Every structure is written in C-alpha cells, then in structure tokens.
Amino acid sequence: MSDCIFCKIANGEIDSKLIYEDETVAAFRDLNPQVPEHILIVPKKHVAKITDFTEEDKNLAAHIFVDVVHEIAKKIGVDENGFRLVVNTGEDGGQTVPHLHVHLLGGRKMTWPPG
Ligand code: 5GP
Ligand code: ZN
To answer: CA 15, 2, 100, 54 torsion: positive or negative?
Structure first.
C-alpha cells in the first residue's frame, strides 16, 4: 500500500536498518522501544491486521511464528531467558499502525497483566 509506513520500511522505500529480512518478511527495531529489545516483525505484503490473513497466508503466518521469531530471538540473545510476542489488533487491541506487526519484546522480565 503506497502510504503505509511499514510497507515502505519492509520494502526498502525508507532506508532503515532491518534486523531480519527474507523474501516475505522483514523485521526492524521499534522507533519508541518499550523494553531493551523491541522488534517489529512484519509481512512484506500489506496485511492490515491478523484477521485479514487468509487461507493462502497460512505458510506466511507459520513462517513468522516457526522460523522468524526463533531466528531473531537467537540473534538478539533473548532465546534463553525468554521474551514476549504481542499482536495488537484493531481499536480495542491498541493497534496504531494498520499493517500487521508482531512485537517481539525482550531484555527484561515482563509483568502481567498488560495495561
Ligand atoms: P501498535 O500500537 O500498532 O501495536 O504498534 C505500532 C508500533 O510501531 C509502536 O510501538 C510504534 O512505536 C512503532 N512505530 C510507529 N511508527 C514507526 C516507524 O516509523 N518506525 C518504526 N521503527 N517504528 C514505528
Ligand atoms: Zn503496509
């Protein structure tokens, strides 16, 4: 989508340091980190929210959660101590950027419940 900030970052239209990239997925550091390690993982194609994933996106969704999360967690050194994944969805979910993104949060002990 032409005016989507995460499309532009993921596809290199905005020059950002990607922490991970393959054909279908990109990941980069959050502009306003909430924890020491705050990464955003996004599909390169524009998907507004997780409930917009379709049957044909099952491989992409699995790829993110099976492969990409683990690879990034190892890369930033949080795979041993643990981390949190968050997918804010829609208004009540607190989603502010309408391009599906998985927050990978780590580097300190988390609390629960979230706000
Ligand atoms: P949401 O609230 O939609 O789950 O998360 C959006 C996240 O994107 C926020 O944590 C916010 O700091 C981050 N963000 C918003 N704009 C940009 C940007 O231009 N670059 C980066 N790296 N992160 C952004
Ligand atoms: Zn987009």
So the answer is: negative
Average pLDDT for the chain: 97
What is the distance between the alpha carbons of residues 22 and 37, in angstroms, rounded to a whole number?
A: 21
Provide the pLDDT for residue 88: 98
Q: Give distance in angstroms: CA of 89 to centre of ligand 1.
A: 13
Ligand 2 center from residue 113 Cα (angstroms): 29
- Give the closest residue to 102 by CA, choosing from 79, 73, 81: 73
The full set of domains in the chain, from first to last, is 5-106 (3.30.428.10)
Q: Which ligand is nearest to the CA of 31?
A: 1
Active site residues: 101
